[in-house]
Amino acid sequence: MAPRKLNVLVYTGTGSTVEAVRHCVYSLRRLLSPNYAVIPISESALLKEPWAPTCALLVFPGGADLGYCRVLNGAGNQTITQFVRRGGAYLGFCAGGYYASRRCEFEVGNRELEVIGNRELAFFPGTCRGGAFKGFAYHSERGAKAAKILVRQDAFPESDALPNVFKCYYNGGGVFADADTVGKDSNAVEVLAEYADELAVESGDCKAAVVYCKVGQGGAIVAGPHPEFDPVLLSQQPDIPGYNVLLDELVADEDARLAFLKACLTKLGLEVSQGTSVAPSLSKLHLTSLHHTEVGEMLYSFDDIITKVDGEEYIKGDNDLFHLEKPDSRWSLASLSQALSNELGVSKTNNGRASPDPTADYNRIPKRIVSHESAWPEPKETPCFNHAIYYSSLQEFRLAEREAEGWGDVLMYGEVVTSTNTLLEKNYSLLSRLPSGFTLAATTQVAGRGRGSNVWVTPPGSLVMSTVINHPAHYAASRPIVFIQYLAAVAIVEAIKSYGPGYSELPVKLKWPNDIYARDPSKPDEISYVKIGGILSNCAYSSGNYQIVLGIGINTNNRRPTTSLDALLPLVGSGKQLAPFHIERLLARILTRLEVLYKNFCRNGFSKELEERYYRHWLHSNQIVALEAEGGVKARILGITRDWGMLKAEEVTADGINGALRPTGKVWALQSDENSFDYWRGLVKRKV
């Protein structure tokens, strides 16, 4: 059973340039979100981490391919080749195209720039020769041009409304020599587009600018020009004659560029999004409470960290600046315009267009908090979150949970935020004043965080929340904080199953240490699970407490990037049609369940009862795994230790007579922060 391939990895190591990576990440996120997570990958991660099983596309941006060769020749290229040959996809722009050809010939005869040599990947089984046009200089725009590209329509039979010709950014890329005949016998090479203009180098039978190569069970697209470069990210170059004309030409063909890039991604087997959305702007944060007076009480507790400037109130956090607004505050037209411009990261592009700056540092944008001290927000203020449903659900579930008393009373909600965990955990002065159960929820995160270096894709339709738990320090030995992530996993699964009558049959499980999985509704005849949620736990110390920020993300109404809770509803065999999940109601259910489980834990530790509840919902009972850190020895999962929450596994060996597995007596205890569980490969691997 293979994991879903949801990652698009953009190489950022030696040889790449910041500008090329920026354009890659921006354009790919526009076209692939929310179906995939577009993530940078370093040379170290590419060499050492098991990235291939979850990777849908590996991208090498522009830069200098000698740098790629220097660090990846040998083991790195073997890994990349194996990934593609086994069904993966590779996309190389400019230097990434030279790098993936059998031979590179660049600026032959130019002593300062000449690069000649064979390359190991050889996805294109010929020579990439460049620069296709004269004038290239490293770290300069002087050789840039708007290259005219002719699209071969017959190469894209499944793509509609493709342009016959368009212009895109070019700076130093090559031409794929004799592409119409190289690999012809095996039908391994297909020209997707050609240069229209005369070239500065010999191109052979055609002027191939973009080429598709069949590689084993996978495929690669290599490009000399830069169809991933977005003119919105390019700056004026007043010292370069004609550069403003170049920018105007790129802007004029923007729709055609995007259509061509979409077609290339589709040809590589990716599912592109319907639109071409940019990252949304940050929204206001609405501070509310079940009892309105608690909002004022919380603001009073912030008094010593509030700074007043020109009558406005601010909290200067360690990572973010918060501006405290009143619902009825009024700004002058000039200050409102300036604030909106600053907050949205709006900049004027070279052709006068205003567009969100995709590279804006979200940490530097002030976060606006609106405190609602007399009423909950009107639906028009928070169209994606109904506070009345949330608070009424909170009260309803408390009637069934005797110990659920206060968690979730105070809620901060933002439609679009950076990361709910970052806003709390990275602003210590604010965090240190928050009570247990204080919750920050969002509809969309633009910088969502997962465990380790992972990114969690959070499109609209996801439940996104972070809750504060102040765990007394004197519990450190008897009630270790490592168990809180386990409690959260149990709380999520039990909240889903107790959402309402009939929901208890939903096929939702937990994976050690802190992921939520569900039966794949697209494979009803198989026992196949996909990830629909995760937990991120961060911890700090303050005034005798370990302050835990518990981040939770669950695919609730959205079918992408994997599946969602709503998609599971038809799998329930009760015959009753279940209503779709309300994110507000599910949030309330998780908080009430989590509060009760946490209080139980504080009283009794990780008791036998809690342990049994955890095992009731997990995927791993008696699973046979390979322990990577122990040389790949086979082991059977026994459970988790009740003292420090470590995964317990015993070594097994095959019986010589009938091949049955028997224990050797050797047992390992594995820490969750040092190991991760690749459920599909039966592998417990050490984190790098």
TrEMBL record:
Q: Name one GO molecular function term.
A: biotin--[biotin carboxyl-carrier protein] ligase activity
Q: Where on the tree of life does the source sit, at the highest rank? A: Eukaryota
Show where the BPL/LPL catalytic domain sits.
396-602
Q: Transmembrane helix: present as a keyword of the record?
A: no
Instruction: Write out the entry's keywords from A to Z.
Output: Ligase
Return the SUPFAM superfamilies for the record: Class I glutamine amidotransferase-like, Class II aaRS and biotin synthetases
Q: Which Pfam families match?
A: BPL_LplA_LipB, BPL_N
Q: Name one GO cellular component term.
A: cytoplasm
Q: Where is the signal peptide?
A: none
Tell me the NCBIfam families matching this sequence. Answer: birA_ligase
Q: Which family does it belong to?
A: Belongs to the biotin--protein ligase family.
Q: What is this protein called?
A: Class II aaRS and biotin synthetase
